[in-house]
Amino acid sequence: MPTDTSNVAFVRTETLPEKAPPASETGIVKWLRENLFAGWANSLLTLLAIWAIYIILSSILPWLFGGLWTTSSLSECREILQGRVGGCFSVLTERWNQLLYGFKYPNDQYWRPNLALVLLFFAAAPVLFFDLPRKLLIFTGLYPFLAFWLIWGGAIAVPIVALLGVVAGYVVFDRLGKQTFAGGFFGGIAAAILVWVLGMALIPETASENALLESVPSRDLGGFMLNLMLGVTCVSLSLPIGIALALGRQSNMPLIKWICVVFIEFIRGVPLITLLFVASVMLSYFFPPESTVDLFLRVVIMITVFSAAYIAEVIRGGLAALPKGQYEAADSLGLDYPQAMQLIILPQALKISIPGIVNVAVGLFKDTTLVSVISMFDLVGMIRGPILASTEWNGVYWELLGFAAALFFVVCYGISQYSQWLERRLATDHR
Amino acid sequence: MVKYQGVTGIHMTTLTDPPKETFRLSMLINDTRYRSLTFQAIAAIILALSFWYLLNNLFQNLAAAGLNISYSFFGESAGYDINQRLIEYDSQSSHGRAAVVGILNTLLVAFLACITATIFGVVAGVLRLSNNWLVSKLMAFYVEIFRNIPVLIWIIIIFTIMTAVLPAPRAFRGDEPAASMLFGSAAFTNRGVYIPGPWFSRPLFDVAVLNWLLVLAFLVGSFFGARALGRWATKVQEATGDRPVTWYFSLGIWLVPFLALMVIMGLSWEYPALKGFNFSGGIKIGGPLIALWFALSIYTGAFIAENVRAGIQAINKGQTEAAASLGLRPGRVMNLVVLPQALRVIIPPLISQYLNITKNSSLAIAVGYADITATLGGITLNQTGRAIECVLLLMLFYLTISLLISAFMNVYNSSIKLKER
């Protein structure tokens, strides 16, 4: 039907340009209306939240920015402040070394734990980030021995013998393990023990006296260094034990299954503090009468046992989450149990368990503060013990506790952010 | 053709000539039928050997130190005082009674902290999902701050507030005191918090505990009465389609017997008052208890908030929309559709958080709250030197609690398991 436009006054031939939306439906106003002031209840909540933020900030900020960093005692600090609000952060600068290394670690040797910490980042990097070249893992394998030597010092032969034992065990496992896993496994352990016993017998008693690095006994370790050492050591030791316990709990051999179940449930049923009591007052009764196992090692044993039980439960969850078809597929390929576990089951189960494992690691790192209860001088122990008891700094609570809290927050929050990144990175199901 | 014959040949031989079942020693390792037995035998031997080794060391060490394993110290007089206690106790009482005081204190702080942690957690978890940007960010901040800092540091921080920031009782003295009581009835001092305590002027029993048990019995009775009322209302609703309005009746069931009992027994309040250097009267809640209670609550509350958030988010949005399309109002959508499904996700981790609270309450020893760890594992251990006995009993106590809680959780999990056909 042709349209006759000659007798129509006006016909628009093109569309009008879009008008801007009303001011209340655009930009920051719309965002504010939707997210902060949607309805009276919501507005009330917003006002409450603003009030809460104001209270928090108005009490913290003046204290934080009005603080003093250079005085030498609390009384001097209070004198300079003269009633003004401000923190005496000079306790942090003055006692910095004590907070980080404890009060007994030799002052001129601080570079050793520092170097160990820097190297830790290099050693951990290939484990944490898969994109890095795999050859770096060799350094990760060397790191425990290097760190031991750096922190404790003494005869360099001790970590070298320990390393040689591990290498010997690995070589034997590599050779024999190709035929039977069990043969390689037990053969490797036997070889390692043989090398250790022989090597320790060969090290002369006087080796530690004129060593390259001055020997530092375990009881001299302290401060945040102790927390970090306990956390890193116990988590890395408990991973293999946890995997073994989880596999044992899934096993169809009743005896092995029940050993693992009883162990896991017992450890998970008691608080860490009772296990630390075991370490401090009870464990030495179970060692041979003439041996003296130092407190640090006893604590490491108990914390490792503790976190292994929790990691085992996390990994069991990962194993249970795998579809049965994966186990059957491995069987139908003709793989035996160790092969199926190594190649098919564990890579998938561990991937599922990563968030849980990181949770356990963060929890464990926080729990290392409990060693202050059995009078080890970790960060909290240092604060509550030598520093708050000193005449100069008796009464400086908030600066010290705030510092400890901030230190733990940074580390723990960092680890959990890494875990979230890793989860995204490993997500192979495209949803 | 050749291949085919070959295969048949093998087939024939296996049919006609079955391998002899002779037992060779190598079958213990190579034959899957025997291998598991071998491994278990090895495990049993290793286990037995290590137990023998450890126990042997233990007895040698004990003999060398002139000790033995004995629990007779439980009857001996403890000789130390406990400020915070639920039952009668003095320094002449036995170590066994001190342990019981400790157990009750552990249960008390765990119970209180479970309740408040749930409240904090649910509020923070729900608010974190709020549409309000500021509030949800604030709650995320709360969760991250409290989850990532050790609970021991929180306990110490709050204990420091209780002891170093709150005024001493003498600040309440004088005509123009530096500190004043909240509503004229509760005093927050650095020696503890004093609140008014209820007591009965016309008690029905001579023993105070029995009176309170009577109150509890009335409340339990009201609970069952209210539940029966609700069932009756549901029955009426199913028969007629209309639900009778029962809330005022239900309120009556709760209040009337309770208030009547209170009037009969003559409920009165005893207010704390400054006498000498300290407050007396009312109920005293010690600083350590409050520090532990509050720190455990906010710390665990942050974890519970995450559980609650995960539980609510686990419910498919389609469920809410389906319920809305059936014509349910938002409140009923929450009550009838979302919450029953979300609770199924929330409650198991919630119960393990309760277990964590109970275990973390052992940190009482850091602030001097007399729980079981501080009495049995602390002072009693140090006074008697019976390390092995004390630590074993301590572990046994916590183990019993956690096994009870996990048993309860298993029962609960199987009762809420999806009934699938």
TrEMBL record, chain A:
Residues 224-419 form the ABC transmembrane type-1 domain. The chain crosses the membrane at residues 40-65, 110-129, 149-173, 185-204, 224-247, 259-283, 295-315, 395-415. The keyword Transmembrane applies. One of its GO terms (molecular function) is transmembrane transporter activity. It is found in: Cell inner membrane; Cell membrane. InterPro entries: AA_ABC_transptr_permease_3TM (IPR010065), ArtM/GltK/GlnP/TcyL/YhdX-like (IPR043429), MetI-like (IPR000515), MetI-like_sf (IPR035906). PANTHER family: INNER MEMBRANE AMINO-ACID ABC TRANSPORTER PERMEASE PROTEIN YHDY (PTHR30614:SF41), MEMBRANE COMPONENT OF AMINO ACID ABC TRANSPORTER (PTHR30614). NCBIfam families: HEQRo_perm_3TM (TIGR01726). This is Glutamate/glutamine/aspartate/asparagine transport system permease protein bztC. It comes from Candidatus Rhodobacter oscarellae.
